[in-house]
Amino acid sequence: MNKFILLVLLLVALQASEIVAPVSLAVTVYNDQFAIVKDTRSASLDGGRSDLYFTDVSANIETETVTFKALTNPESVKVFEQNFEANLINTQAILKKYIDKEIEIYAQLGTSSAKVNGTLLGYNSGYILKTSKGIEVYNDVEGINFPSLPDGFLTLPTLHWKVFSDQAATTDVEVAYRTTGFSWKSDYSVTLNEDESKADVGGWVTIDNNSGKRYQQAKLKLIAGDVNTVNNNKNFARPEMMMMDGASARSAPSFSEKSFSDFHMYTLS
Q1: Domains recognised in the chain with CATH numbers
Q2: Rounded Cα distance, 46 and 49, in Å
Q3: Does the CA dihedral 43-49-55-60 come out positive or negative?
Q4: What is the gyration radius of the CA atoms in the chain, in angstroms?
């Protein structure tokens, strides 16, 4: 198996407004393999058009459920484009971008290695390079040096909005979305005393998070009950992109229970 050493200088300069810091995070987990996330962060908005980025979000976002709301003067902030950027960096994706472009490889030639510069023509069955000597194929490659990282690659799933603000301001923005990759269950144990006149009842809640994100310091709620959902057909060309018009520690924490209709809600306090 080839070992790749990606010698990439990653310089990311977002000429845009910036998501400054998290403010609060709330997660409501349903027993139907999904959760509702409310993520509030502080944003610095430029006057006029801005690009806002929410990094470190769930990789399993259902894009049609994303909502965005400025909590201060919401009528002055309008969203006119929304995207879920899930084009995460990996070797094959970078190589694809470098077809017909110059790269530098470290090829194994017998007992020694050599640095080879050339135009990448293909990489599926060996690395095919056009060099000053002609068309050359290298099957044993130890490393690849790319001059720069192509545009559009990210290290974390990211929500990206294009917004218009009437004036420059710092405001909290609340983003909510539904994500799959969650489940929870409860288990109970009963311990009787020696004469079986009393019992000690204990309970554990186990939450399985496979959404691709850690939810640190989140306010947690659990919902038990069957939820009816409608599966709409996604109309956008790429599943990770969505266009949208308009504004859119205590040592022993415990759950409190509240019933409504056919559901039961458990809040961690």
Answers
A1: 18-88+153-185+209-260 (2.60.120), 92-145 (2.30.30.520)
A2: 7
A3: positive
A4: 26
In this structure, what token pair is assigned to residue 173?
């923005």
62 phi and psi angles, rounded to 5 deg: -90, 105
Strands, E assignment, the chain? 18-30, 34-45, 48-55, 67-70, 77-85, 102-109, 112-122, 127-131, 134-138, 141-145, 158-165, 169-180, 182-192, 199-209, 219-224, 255-260, 263-268
Alpha helices by DSSP H, 157-243: none
Digit-coded pLDDT (tens) for 111-148: 888 899 999 999 988 899 999 999 999 999 989 999 98
Q: How far apart are CA 99 and CA 120, in angstroms?
A: 5
pTM score, whole prediction: 0.66
Taking alpha carbons only, the member of 127, 108, 104 closest to residue 116 is 104
Instruction: Name residues whose C-beta falls within 8 Å of residue 7's C-beta, 6 or more positions apart in sequence.
Output: 143, 144, 145, 146
| The residue count for the chain | 269
**Around Cβ 22, how many Cβ atoms within 10 Å?**
14
Q: What pLDDT was estimated at residue 111?
A: 83
- Which of 77-81, 127-131, 227-231, 238-242 has the weakest average pLDDT? 238-242
Cα–Cα dist 79/163, whole Å: 4
Neighbours of 130 (CB within 10 A): 14
